[in-house]
């Protein structure tokens, strides 16, 4: 097991004063949804901190192929798909990790190498940055082009909160199986 850092509040993932997630109360639809999305984005990254490439690439709940590294790659692909392809209307843009050919490529093609880890986190950071810039320049009722028809930005943002929330739950279980670490 990986040694956990000593914390003032040992039952918490990080001490509250070190938590990068905002604890501010938000008002209004936009700030509320974006606040939750930001917190979940940061939570996924936090759940991966302090692990080796081998641990990040370990499917710790067999027979599932879910790994923490796969979740990072998956969310980079989801960010790219919704914000570059759908909302920015570039459906022709190739999907990250060859998902058009292999639906599970973000999970099945992980390698326990630092290069794979670095690429995955760089892709996630790049796609989140693009999404944040795109959202900042648009209104919640702006429309994107989905293969099933137009979709409002507010619907995409709520979907992203749901997607991250589900996968952060997976990350909790994967991390606990890897080194026993649990927390907020």
UniProtKB/TrEMBL annotation:
Top-level lineage group: Bacteria
Region spans: Disordered: 1-28
InterPro entries: DinB/YfiT-like (IPR034660), MST-like (IPR007061)
Compositionally biased intervals (Basic and acidic residues): 1-11, 19-28
UniProt signal peptide: none
Protein's UniProt name: DinB family protein
């Amino acid at each position: 097991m990986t040694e956990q850092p000593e914390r003032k509040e040992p039952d918490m993932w990080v001490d509250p004063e070190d938590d990068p997630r905002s604890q501010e109360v938000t008002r209004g639809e936009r700030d509320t949804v974006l606040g939750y999305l930001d917190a979940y984005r940061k939570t996924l990254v936090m759940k991966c901190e302090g692990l080796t490439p081998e641990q990040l690439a370990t499917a710790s709940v067999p027979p599932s192929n879910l790994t923490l590294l796969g979740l990072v790659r998956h969310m980079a692909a989801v960010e790219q798909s919704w914000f570059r392809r759908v909302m920015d209307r570039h459906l022709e843009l190739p999907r990250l990790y060859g998902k058009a050919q292999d639906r599970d490529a973000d999970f099945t093609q992980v390698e326990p190498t630092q290069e794979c880890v670095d690429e995955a986190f760089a892709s996630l950071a790049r796609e989140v940055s693009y999404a944040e810039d795109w959202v900042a320049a648009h209104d919640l009722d702006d429309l994107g082009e989905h293969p099933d028809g137009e979709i409002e930005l507010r619907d995409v943002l709520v979907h992203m909160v749901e997607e991250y929330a589900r996968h952060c739950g997976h990350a909790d279980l994967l991390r606990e199986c890897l080194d026993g670490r649990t927390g907020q």
